[in-house]
Amino acid sequence: MRAKSKVQEFKFTLEKSAELMAYLQEKFPSKSRDNIKSLLKNKLVQVNGVTQTHFKFPLEKGQLLTVGKKEVKTPEIPGLKIVFEDKDIIVVNKPAGLLTISTEKIKTRTLYHTLSIHVKKENPDNKVFVVHRLDRETSGLLVFAKSEQMKLRLQKNWNDEIKQRSYIAIVEGRVKEREKTIHSYLRESKALKVHSSQNPTYGQEAITHYKLLDYRNNSSVLEVNLDTGRKNQIRVHMQEIGHPIVGDKKYGAKTVLAGRIALHALTLSFKHPRTGEILSFTSKSPL
């Protein structure tokens, strides 16, 4: 059996405006019109990372034309939604069960990997940068930067740039105090579990506020707001007050939920790192 030849990849930065067919004929004079139509039909031509199949597609000066590269499709992940995107940032609604970034065992089915493919469809050189994370079992809103500069701007004064971060948490037991502020210092152990202390020298300061919204049988629905964004902060603080989050076995819960804990990042409001505009987003809680 004759082996199939590998399609060679070519890249051009357009130095002028032109129709796609005319430009391709100019760059590949040895190819017939039918050869070029075959490239288009087989989705081997991309403009700024987006596949084009029409020979009259109008090209503009400065665009990146790639020939010989198959279209890259963004993986379909149920529940994942981009709620805002501009040239600097992407805000997404993450489903529970999806990692924010890769681990040693899981490399590709992550939010970071999916968004990386998404931005490269516009331009193969595009990247995304992690600004903050949500635990795998937690759903809700988080923001990615599209350049290292925007990432650093957001992270440098993170607690000042963030105007509101509210969560919905369903915790075990009936919480007696309708409102409470939990203030402690957190440190992660070698076993990757976060512990809390009232000793200021123990770890990073963490401040969590909650408000009781409702009771559900032998559980409580809370709105939780953060002054700080430490790893596992809400989970640890709920355990500390004797009401671990439903499904959160790691931090003392006795109940079990399939593939998640009962925690959802409901509201995210922050200052845009370039414009200074206050952006506010709310996602519907699945809990």
Topology at a glance:
Elements: E1 10-13, E2 18-19, H1 20-27, H2 33-41, E3 45-47, E4 50-51, E5 58-59, E6 64-67, E7 81-85, E8 89-94, H3 111-120, E9 129-130, E10 139-145, H4 148-156, H5 158-161, E11 162-172, E12 179-188, E13 194-197, E14 204-216, E15 219-226, H6 233-240, E16 263-271, E17 278-282
Parallel strand pairs: 10-16
Antiparallel strand pairs: 1-6, 2-5, 3-4, 3-6, 7-8, 8-10, 9-10, 11-15, 11-16, 12-13, 12-14, 14-15, 16-17
CATH superfamily of the largest domain: Pseudouridine synthase
Distinct helical segment count: 6
- How is the main sheet built? 11 strands, mixed
Q: Determine Rg (CA atoms, Å).
A: 24 Å
Determine the N-to-C terminus distance. Answer: 56 Å
Beta strands, count: 17
Quick synopsis:
With 287 residues, the chain is an alpha+beta fold. It has helices spanning 20-27, 33-41, 111-120, 148-156, 158-161, 233-240, and strands at residues 10-13, 18-19, 45-47, 50-51, 58-59, 64-67, 81-85, 89-94, 129-130, 139-145, 162-172, 179-188, 194-197, 204-216, 219-226, 263-271, 278-282.
